[in-house]
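Worked Example 4.2. Consider the chain below.
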Amino acid sequence: MHDIDNLIKKTRLASEFCPRVGLRSIQHNRKSSNDTHHFRAQVDLDDVTIMRVENEGRGGDNYYHMRRATTPEQIQTLTELARSFCEEAKPETYSEIVRKQVLVTAIYDDFPFVDVLLGSLLNEQLTLIDMRKALNQRIHIIDMDRSLLYDTDKRPTQIHLDHSKKILGSKHLILNELDEPSQLKLWLTIN
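Applying the procedure from the previous section yields the following structure tokens:
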């Protein structure tokens, strides 16, 4: 387990940085996603839906549709959390947003930080969906010496998992057998 911790110690999920904000009811269209994701989702703050976000997938801005019950305080909290997320998790992006705002306009806008946070949460959720599908179809093994992830041609049945454990040495890890947060961190780190 110590080797896993070393491998993923620098990988933090957007949902860990900002657990108060979440996306749900995600509708994503891979085929029409070009420069950005073509998606629609509900944005939750402290488990309360405050808005819907969508993007047409052509590289343009996100569109936000506030719920009538959403308060200015909720929007303020969301933007503060997004700003903190960018400052801590994506310092280069944070600096770039601040630099552009100073150069381009005197009007200060925190929604570029919200875009980055929601984009990170969306990427995490889409990666999680893909990872779950892949792990359900095949056994995935990590070579801890070389930090490589590869899959086998075997489905992850208990018989195949047990057989793989017998064959593999201590420097190999079966990704299918870990908890989901560790799986996702390793998937993101090694892929």
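The mean pLDDT is 89. The two ends are 20 Å apart (CA to CA). Compare this with Example 4.1 before moving on.
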